[in-house]
Amino acid sequence: MPAHIAFLLRHAFVGFLIAAGFAAVLLVADFGGLRHLVLITDGGFVALAAFVVFCTITFGSVQIGVRIMMMAERPSDDGGRGLGQVALAEPVPVRVDR
Question: Could you give the number of structural domains in the chain?
Answer without folding.
Answer: 1
